[in-house]
Amino acid sequence: MLAERAGFVSNLVLWNESGYFNNSADTKPLLHLWSLGIEEQFYIAWPLLLWTSWKRKFNLLAIIGAVAVASFMLNMRGVRTDLVATFYSPLTRIWELSFGSLLAWLTLYKGSACREYRNNLDNTLCKMFHRESQKGDGSNVRDALSACGVLLLAWGLAKVTNKTHFPGSWALLPTLGSVCIISAGPQAWINRRILSNRVLVWFGLISYPLYLWHWPLLSFARIMKSETPSRPVRIAAVVLAIALAWLTYTVVEKPIRNGKNGLVKAIALSVLMALVGFAGYYTFLGEGLGFRFPKIVQDFTEYQYDWKTGYREGSCLLRAEQDYTQFQSCETSIESTKPTIVLWGDSHAAHLYPGYKAVFGESSNIVQRTSSSCPPILGLEIESRVHCKKINDNVFALIRNLKPDKVVLAGVWVAYDEWRQVDKTIAALRDIGIKNIDLIGPVPDWKDELPRQLYHYYKMDIFHRIPYRMNFGLNQNFIALDPEMSDFAAQNNVHYISPKKIMCNTEGCLTRLGETGETITAFDYAHLTEKGSIYLVSKFPE
How many CA atoms are closer than 13 Å to the CA of 224, on its beta-carbon side? Predict the structure, then answer.
C-alpha cells in the first residue's frame, strides 16, 4: 500500500482487492487512504479539465454541472450493480468534490448576485415572521443554511451504517450538509458561536494528521487482539492518535508549510515519496517479505482461495446488488435419471456447493440457488438486501416446478435474529410435497480470519506449531446455537446436520487437513475452502 499511496492510486488498489469475502476492513491499517487517492486524482485531473475548458471558451458552470450530474447518475446506477466499484471509483465520487467547485465558482463570479438573492429571501422571511417592518440583512438565511447543514450531517451520522448502500443517494447528506455550512459563511450563528470554538478550531488544525493516525492505531489494535479490542483499548488508541496528530502538526506540518527553503523542501519531499514508493513496491514484489517465516506458516497465511469460481459468484451466488433474474446465467444441467438436490441459502449455502458437487455430483443433479446475506426464509425483508424477498420467492417457485428429491437449507444462522422464521420455508416446502429437507447448522466461526488466527497461534505457541484443531479464537455463538437448532429441527420434523459435530471435538475445530495452504478449512472467519467443503459434505448422509 505504500507504493500505491505514493502513486496516488490507493483507492484503485483497494477496489481491486475488495469483495464480499475480502479481508475485513478493520484489519487493513491503510484502508482509509482510499479517500486521499480519489482527492489526489481529482486535484490532478480537475484543473486540467477546467483549464482546457477555459482555453476553448466553454462555460465553466455548464462543465462543472455536467460532470457533477453525470458522476451522480453513475453513482446512483452503480449502487444497484456494483457497490465496491461505486465506492472506490473516482468516476462515481467526483460529484461530491465538484459540489465544492460549484460553490467556489458561485462565490467568485456570482458573489454579489448570491448576496442580493440571500438578502431578498431574508426580507421575505422577515415580513413573514415579524409583525413590524424589518429589513433583512441575510443573517436569517445564513443561520438557516448553517442549521440545515448541521442537521444533514447529524442525519447522515445516525442513518448511514455498514449495511447502507453507500454512496448512492445517502452521500447527499454529508455533501449537501458541508455545502450548507460553508456557504453560510463565518457570520452564521452556529459557525460563529460553535464551530469557531477554540477546541473545535484546534481539532480542525490537526484534523489531517488525526485522519492519518486514527485508523492504523485502531486497526493494529484489532490485528493484535484477533478480535474487536475492548473499549478502554479503543479509547486509548483514539487518545494516542490525537497526541500523535498534534505532534505531527507541530513538528512536521507547520515547519514544512511555513518558513524558508520552499524549493529544498519540495525536492526533499519528492525524494522521500519516491523512496517510500520503492520500498512499498519492493515489499509487494516480495509478497510481504514472507521469507521471514517457515514455509508452513507462509503456505497457510498466503493461500488465496478462488471463492468466486468455487462458489460461482455472480451467477449462482448473487451479489447484494443483483436480483433473481441473474440466476438465468447459473449453469444447471439436470438429468432426468438422477435425483435432484436444491441448495438454497446465503453464502454459507454457496460454500457447500464444491462439496456437494464433488461428493454427490456424479449421482445427483446439484441445483445451486444462493444469494449473499439472504437466508432461505420466505417473506423476510432485509433493508440492506433489497432483492432478498423476491430472490427467495423465485427459488421457491423453481422448487415448486422442479419437484426436487431434496432441499438443503443453509445460512449464516448466527447472523440472523430471525433464523427461527425458517419454519415458514419448511412449512411451505411441505405444502408443495417436498418431504426430504436438510437443515444445515452453523459451521465453526472464528473471531478473525482463520489464516490469521493460525498465525497468532503460531506466535503464541512455545513450539511454534500450526495445529490441526484448536479452540483458540473460536466464537462461542455457533457452539451455543447448534443444540438449539437441533431441537428446532426435531420440532419441525426435518433432518438436521451439525457441522460442529463433524468438524469439532474436545480438542477444538478443524483448521487444516494437510500440510499445504490449500488444505486449510476456511479462508476467512467461517467460509469454507474447497477442501473444507468437500470434507464436511463427505460426512453428510446420502
Answer: 11
Q: Are 520 and 531 in contact (CB under 8 A)?
A: yes
d(CA 369, CA 18): 23
> How far, in Å, CA of 305 to CA of 354, rounded?
12
The class (CATH top level) of 307-538 is alpha beta
Q: Retrieve residue 159's grid coordinates.
A: 442513518
Q: How far is CA 161 from each of CA 157, 167, 383, rounded to the nearest angstrom?
A: 8, 11, 11
Look-up of cell digits 439472504: 374
Confidence check: pLDDT of 295 > 60: yes
Alpha carbon distance 187, 178 (integer Å): 16
Average pLDDT over residues 223-229: 75
Burial (Cβ within 10 Å: 0-12, 13-18, ≥19) of residue 485: buried
Q: Treating both helix axes as pointing N-terminal to C-terminal, what angle do 34-55 and 94-109 enclose, rounded to 10 degrees?
A: 50
* Sign, Cα dihedral of 221, 226, 227, 233: negative
Beta bridge pairs of residue 437: 407
Average pLDDT, the chain: 89
Is the preceding omega at residue 167 within 30 degrees of 0, hence cis?
Answer: yes
| Cβ 29 vs Cβ 215: under 8 Å | yes
The residues near 510 (Cβ < 8 Å, ≥ 6 apart) are 444, 468, 469, 503, 504, 521, 532, 535
**Could you tell me the pLDDT band of residue 18, with boundaries at 50, 70 and 90?**
low
Q: What is the residue type of 284?
A: F
Q: Among the ranges 17-21, 37-41, 187-191, 528-532, which has the highest mean pLDDT value?
A: 528-532
pLDDT-above-90 percentage for the chain: 62
Strands 406-410 and 437-440, sheet pairing: parallel
Tell me the one-letter amino acid at 332.
T
Q: What angle do CA 308, 311, 317 make, to 5 degrees?
A: 95
Distance between start and end Cα atoms, the chain: 48
Alpha carbons 372 and 230: distance in angstroms, whole number: 30
Question: In this structure, which amino acid lies at residue 472?
Answer: F
pLDDT tens for 42-73 read 999 999 999 999 999 999 999 999 999 999 99
